[in-house]
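Technical annex, item 7. During the second reporting period the consortium partners agreed on a shared format for inverse folding records so that results from different sites could be compared directly. Each record opens with the tokenized structure and is followed by the designed sequence. A conforming record, contributed by the partner at site C, is shown below for reference.
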């Protein structure tokens, strides 16, 4: 079981918004979809661009570099050119903390 790590303040990520946070050697993006938070690798599996710099439409984030789209709830590729999904992580708000669990 992975330990949760504080990455920011609870409420940092507004509905329909994205943010990125360093977690150890990773950069993790957090998306707020209708009040539910989802955490996933911030780096696109196609050209290693920051997904948190992209656009969030519902539960789909579009990479700003080449337009690959990922479902933030599962990490699955929705539309290429990417073919590999992004990893997803547990995320929660605990008291005043925004926390992410990575292995």
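Designed sequence (site C submission):
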């Amino acid at each position: 079981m992975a330990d949760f790590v504080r990455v920011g303040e609870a409420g940092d990520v507004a509905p329909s918004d994205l943010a990125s946070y360093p977690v150890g050697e990773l950069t993790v993006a957090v998306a707020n979809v209708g009040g539910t938070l989802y955490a996933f690798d911030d780096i696109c599996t196609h050209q290693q661009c920051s997904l948190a710099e992209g656009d969030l439409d519902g539960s789909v984030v579009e990479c700003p570099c080449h337009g690959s789209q990922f479902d933030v709830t599962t990490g699955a590729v929705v539309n290429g050119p990417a073919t590999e999904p992004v990893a997803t992580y547990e995320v929660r708000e605990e008291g005043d903390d925004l926390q992410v669990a990575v292995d």
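The chain has no helices and ten strands. The two ends are 8 Å apart (CA to CA). All partners now use this format for quarterly exchanges.
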